[in-house]
Design brief:
The chain is α/β, with parallel strands linked by helices and 285 residues long. It folds into two domains: 172 residues, Rossmann fold (3-Layer(aba) Sandwich), CATH 3.40.50.620; 95 residues, Pantoate--beta-alanine Ligase, Chain: A,domain 2, CATH 3.30.1300.10. 40% of the residues lie in helices and 19% in strands. The strands form two sheets. A six-stranded parallel sheet has the order 1-4-3-2-5-6, sandwiched between helices. Helix 2 links the parallel strand 2 and strand 3. Helix 6 packs across helix 7 and helix 9 packs antiparallel against helix 10. It is globular and about 55 Å long.
Length: 285
């Protein structure tokens, strides 16, 4: 099977994409940090249903990692990633170097509020979303795609990127793709490979307890009581729980009784650490 072409400079990327768009063809962008799994491939397939060409970026973005986080240990599997993208039928890989993305003298970042300041991931990783928003903004302006696809597993990130594209008039449609799960329910993540066998078994508690809490809330039980029961079960399974929160699905604002009565879309989000691995997940309520 032919390999997917790789470009490493913005100039080469724009030449490829520009030629496609000059011919009236649409281009989808799937931004990734590599270590690809079936969730990423689902984004590629979703892009293929909406555009004639799919570009996948592979770039481990240093600006979204805090000094205490796992930048150096983040899995880098470029050859395997390229093979998976060939099997999936992707059209182009954009794999820039750090100097290509952040040349000497780089001094600009994106300032955020709204869903990036919801007291969820931002409370535990305060430098994360400015780094994400800056690199995504660069990828959007470098590639100039018609659409961009992001997984719902990183739900807060998805809302941040949607606001970014809207607020900065980037003229790119940002599409969320449902979370891809293992057969037992664990959300696919590049970090799952770091789980021991015992941790992998215990990790199912996150999804199970989110489902239990969501079912209780839908049945009319008091939300905080349902959340407290789920939090206790998650902690009892050996997790260090950062949050389990019920939020407005669009804004990620805290909800009140009026929101429940109005039947507006809600999202249940969780982040917890087991051993050395931090997992996040979310479901609709």
């Amino acid at each position: 099977m032919p390999q997917v072409p790789v470009v490493r400079t913005v100039k080469a990327l724009r030449a490829r994409v520009g030629a496609w768009q000059a011919g009236g063809e649409h281009v989808a962008l799937v931004p990734t940090m590599g270590a690809l799994h079936a969730g990423h491939i689902a984004l590629v397939k979703a892009g293929q249903r909406r555009a004639q060409h799919v570009v996948v970026s592979i770039f481990v973005n240093p600006t979204q990692f805090a000094p205490t986080e796992d930048l150096s240990s983040y899995p880098r599997t470029f050859a395997a990633d390229r093979a998976k993208l060939a099997d999936a039928g992707a059209d182009l890989i954009f794999a820039p170097t750090v100097p290509e993305m952040y040349p000497d003298g780089f001094a600009t970042t994106v300032s955020l509020a709204g869903p990036a300041a919801a007291g969820l991931e931002d409370a535990f990783r305060p430098t994360h979303f400015p780094g994400v928003a800056t690199v995504v903004c660069k990828l959007f302006t470098q590639c100039r795609p018609d659409i961009a696809l992001f997984g719902e597993k990183d739900y807060q990130q998805l809302q941040v990127v949607k606001h970014l594209a809207r607020d900065l008039d980037l003229d790119i449609k940002v599409i969320g793709v449902p979370t891809v799960r293992e057969p037992d329910g664990l959300a696919m993540s590049s970090r799952n490979r770091f789980l021991s066998a015992a941790e992998r078994e215990k990790s199912l508690v996150l999804y199970q307890q989110m489902q239990a809490a969501a079912s209780a809330i839908r049945a009319g039980h008091e939300p905080e009581a349902a959340l407290d029961a789920a939090r206790s079960a998650i902690i009892a399974a050996g997790f260090a729980l950062d949050y389990l929160a019920l939020r407005d699905a669009a804004t990620l604002a805290r909800i009140n009784g009026a929101a429940l009565l109005a039947g507006q879309p809600l999202r249940l989000l969780v982040a917890a650490k087991i051993g050395a691995t931090r997992l996040i997940d979310n479901i609709a309520v």
